[in-house]
Write a structure and sequence with these properties.
Mean pLDDT: 88
Oligomer: single chain
Strand content: 15-25%
Number of strands: 14
Order of helices and strands: EHEEEEHEEEHHEEEEHEEH
Low-confidence stretches: 154-180
Distance between the termini: 32 Å
Bound molecules: zinc ion
Helix content: 10-25%
Radius of gyration: 20 Å
Number of helices: 6
Length: 289
């Protein structure tokens, strides 16, 4: 039977400290005593521990880029094989898909400025809003996840800065599956108008009672660490289905605009110059083969 608990664990509020991993485990706040990710590929991940580990990790307090598990040599701790989309890594991706909250626990051994001085601290609930892969410094593939703190006042007691709105983190919040309410930027509006709201993959133009509807997708994501530009050579006009598939790396686009992972090719207007560097970035970091 599953022991996963999505959300706060009763009796252990945000800010609660624990001396050891064993104590965390017995409280049910983070069950595994070694692994950084708790959960299952079928149900999702219910908690993570941020500790020493990966030099590429980013911690801004309310926004985290977290590296997946696996592929490390147990004796040296060095990456010695590719990380696969399985076990904890698949669990975090499942949490992204299902929109499940993940408890974040920071350990004293984390490099983060938000780390506690001693032991471990439960820092509240986060949503997984993106996942992609990278080649780590070792040359092996690693999985990475962006987590954003959920807008719950109880979750913010330990944070030094509280943003007005989580969408501001992204600027173009339409890239987030969790906070979909955001205004399009000028380049996003321009690209939609260029295609008259027709999907560049399937040609569908959705008609809502209020008018036509399409979604604008950045090819190279705009958030850290990708830092793609919000410019028309980095934006596609897609229907919701194809935007979702694109953002998950279910398909990508080759330099010659042939689709990878789907049949057909991307329709591109002669006035719309796409930057091939951004297309390559999407293939290299998002496409899941
Ligand atoms: Zn479409």
């Amino acid at each position: 039977m599953s022991q996963l608990i999505f959300g706060d664990v009763p009796g252990y509020p945000v800010g609660r400290c624990f001396a050891t991993r064993r104590e965390l485990s017995e409280a049910g706040v983070h069950r595994p005593t070694q692994a950084g990710i708790a959960g299952s590929g079928n149900e999702g991940a219910d908690s993570i521990v941020i500790s020493g580990g990966y030099e590429d990790d980013i911690d801004r307090g309310d926004e985290i880029v977290y590296t997946g598990q696996g592929g490390r040599d147990e004796s040296t701790g060095k990456q010695s094989a590719h990380q696969a989309l399985e076990r904890g890594n698949l669990a975090l991706a499942k949490s992204r898909q299902l929109g499940l909250p993940v408890r974040v626990i920071r350990g004293h051994n984390s490099r983060s400025q938000y780390a506690p001085k001693f032991g471990y601290r439960y820092d509240g609930l986060y949503a997984v809003v993106d996942s992609w892969h990278d080649v780590g410094r070792s040359g092996f593939r690693i999985w990475r996840y962006r987590l954003v703190q959920l807008p719950d006042k109880r979750s913010k007691v330990n944070m030094t800065s509280v943003k007005e709105s989580p969408t501001e983190t992204y600027g173009q919040g339409a890239d987030s599956d969790v906070f979909p309410v955001a205004h399009d930027t000028a380049p996003m509006r321009e690209v939609k108008a260029m295609y008259d709201f027709m999907c560049q993959v399937c040609g569908v133009r959705l008609e809502l009672p209020t008018g036509p509807y399409a979604e604008a997708a950045h090819i190279k994501a705009v958030g850290e660490p990708h830092c793609g530009p919000d410019a028309i050579d980095n934006v596609l006009c897609l229907c919701p289905n194809h935007r979702l598939l694109f953002n998950w790396g279910a398909f990508s686009v080759a330099d010659d605009l042939i689709l990878v992972g789907l049949a057909g090719s991307l329709h591109v207007d002669h006035a719309h110059k796409l930057n091939p560097d951004y297309l390559r970035y999407h293939r290299e970091h998002y496409l899941v083969k």
